Amino acid sequence: MPHKTRPMTAILLFTTLNAVLCATITPVYDFVCFLPYWERRRERRRQEREASNHGRI
Predict the structure, then answer these.
(1) What's the angle, vertex CA 24, arms to CA 20 and CA 28, rounded to 5?
(2) Cα–Cα distance, 46 to 41 (Å, whole number)
(3) Which residues, if any, are the signal sequence (predicted)?
(4) pLDDT tens for residues 2-46?
């Protein structure tokens, strides 16, 4: 065989990487979803929707 395989090292590396990704997903998700940009966009769209509703009545 050209090289040795190290299954235990691969399993530990894979498990560690998954644990790190799982631990960091919540803060990243919160940061992206609750950026001020989205709040401003949501408020602007609400105002546009209200303005268009008032025009129809």
Answers:
(1) 155
(2) 9
(3) 1-22
(4) 667 788 999 999 999 999 999 999 988 888 888 888 889 999 999
Give Cα separations from 9 to 12, 22, 37 (angstroms). Answer: 5, 20, 43
Structure tokens at 37: 């940009």
Q: What is the pLDDT of residue 13?
A: 95
CA atoms within 13 A on the CB side of 43: 6
Question: What pLDDT, on the 0 to 100 scale, is given for residue 19?
Answer: 95
Cα(14)–Cα(51) distance, rounded to whole angstroms? 53
